[in-house]
Amino acid sequence: MSSVLKAQNVSFAYTRVPVLEHVSFDVQAGDYVGIIGPNGGGKTTLLKLLLGLERGEGNIALFGVPLANFKDWHKIGYLAQKSPVSQSRFPISAEEVVLMGLPNRCGSETCVSELKQVHEAMQKTRTRQYAGTIFHDLSIGQQQRVLLARAIVSQPELLILDEPSTALDAQSREMFFDLLGELNKKHGVTILLITHDTGEVGKHISKFMYVDKTVIFFGTKQEFCHSEAVAKQLGPFAQHTIDHLHNHHGHCPLGEDCEECAHGGKHA
Amino acid sequence: MLEFLSYSFVQRGLVAGTFVAVACALLGVFLVLKRLSLIGDGMSHVCLTGVAVALLTSTSPVYMSVPIVMAASVGIMKLTQKFKIYGDAAIGIVSAAGLSVGLLLTSLAGGFNTDLLGYLFGSILTVSFSEAVLCAVLLGIVLLCLLSFYRYLVSACFDAPFAHTRGISVQTVNTVLVMITSVAVVLAFKVVGIFLISALLIIPPVAALLISRTFKQVLWLAALFGAVSVWVGVWISFVCNIPSGASIILVNLAILLSSYLWSRAGGTNAR
Fold first, then answer.
1. Which of B150, B158, B162 sits opposite A90 (nearest CB)?
2. Residue whose C-alpha is closest to residue A201's, from A250, A253, A238
3. Most exposed: A152, A194, B5, B149, by fewest CB within 10 Å?
4. Domains in chain B, CATH or no CATH each
């Protein structure tokens, strides 16, 4: 498997207080990585660094190319934590928003081939019926689904998502994670997903990354349950967290292989 | 009723005013949506420094103001990007600096005189041929940028972080936008005066945004409102013998009010 995303000794500080220190990991093609960690642990900042939205120290490579020289942005789909439109009345349709995800090959006009891709992506996220609606007029959940369509319209090889499911209702959330699972399994799309919804995402992901100022853990679900580093980091909350999620979802949030972890807490 | 159109200086002023108003309206759409509306106000205050330097050195206020206002706009961007100061605060700082330096230099130049008052309150009928040509060039550049980079501009304006992940240099887009706005502001002070320039950048786009359903519609309507405000404003100015700058802005305000009423009546994109 080839490296899709590699970080080496990445550090970042907004002022003098470090947000992230000495972060290193290597995401392989086909990985579905769930990034978890406490609020303020630097998860969103990490994604921003990986996309070049913030500049820190260390080395980042996308598809083997150093970030500074990376040009194939169509290979990457990105969905941010917050919807870009808050109160401003931006007169743009949902269809035009999705179109933004494609490289500009047809000038100021829209080509037929582009529209076809846009409609396919909207079909997948069940937003086709909103194509002509002003983006601002959609609910936050509908906007989020349109933005997911924008993230996948260029048929990216890597999807980077920052807490994408927070504004979604239960049905949309299930559709959302099923779609991500399908993209990962059928089309081999590598996914990096920040989430607090470990129960839902636990069904699909192949790896966990626990971030709290640095990468505390990065490995498979099974390894996560048996990680001493995670147990040490979460302390007395480890069992509580797992039990809480276990009770809510009726199965071990970290996968069926973690029965021992969820019930006994020996390792956590 | 239209006899004023027979004067060549009126024709020149109208043509130049239309070019500037349309350019300002088109640029203003992006500035308003990027919440940089007041950058025009800040730049216009810096114009006073340019005019004062020109009066001191007996050079052209327009040519003297362009580099000074461009430098000020770079200053505003650096304050927001490097020093993480809020955009409105950065505009306020540069605006105050421009106004105070301008007043100081004006005092050194011998105080307020007729020329300076013309720049403060606008004198569209004194636009020279070369200035009219400059206005045409400005509009040409704005239209060329819009046609060439329309999707980049809209994308960077709608969602800058996502635009970055499409390989769009948002910083370059912002710099180009602000630089062109600098030139527009300098050319506009002849039309409506230093004090009222920002109205040309803000009011037509806001009026268009109130009643448009698509982005292209906003651009067309903003341009139309800008142009109409100049024609009707100059006509009212001629008929009623009032300052043209003020009448142009009052027409803009009337258009804004009409758009608001239209949107309230249901012809709007608002929820």
1. B158
2. A253
3. B5
4. 3-264 (1.10.3470.10)
* pLDDT number for residue A249: 46
Which residues 33-62 of A are in CB contact (within 8 Å) with B? 48, 51-53
A58's CB contacts (< 8 A; 6+ apart) are A7, A8, A9, A10, A11, A22, A23
Cα distance between residue B221 and residue B267, in whole Å = 14
Cβ–Cβ < 8 Å for A29, A157: yes
- Chain A residues close to B159, C-beta within 8 Å: 80, 84, 100
Helix (H) or strand (E) segment spanning residue A79: strand A76-79
Residues of chain A with pLDDT below 70 are 1, 85-88, 104-110, 198-201, 235-268
Task: Report the 10 Å Cβ neighbour count for A80.
Answer: 22
- Where in chain A do CATH 3.40.50.300 domains reside? 3-63+157-263
DSSP H/E element including B40: helix B39-57
ipTM above 0.90, yes or no: no
CATH number for the domain whose boundaries are A3-63+157-263: 3.40.50.300
* Helix (H/G/I), strand (E/B), else coil: A138: coil
**pLDDT beyond 90 at B228:** yes
Task: Put residue A90 in one of left, alpha, beta given phi > 0 → left and psi -120 to 50 → alpha.
Answer: beta
- Give the Cα separation of A40 and B99 in Å (integer): 42
Give the A window 68-97 contacts with B, CB below 8 Å. 71, 73-74, 76, 78, 80, 84-85, 88-93, 96-97
Pairing of strands A32-36, A190-194: parallel
Q: With residue A4 as reference, give the H or E element that holds it.
A: strand A3-13
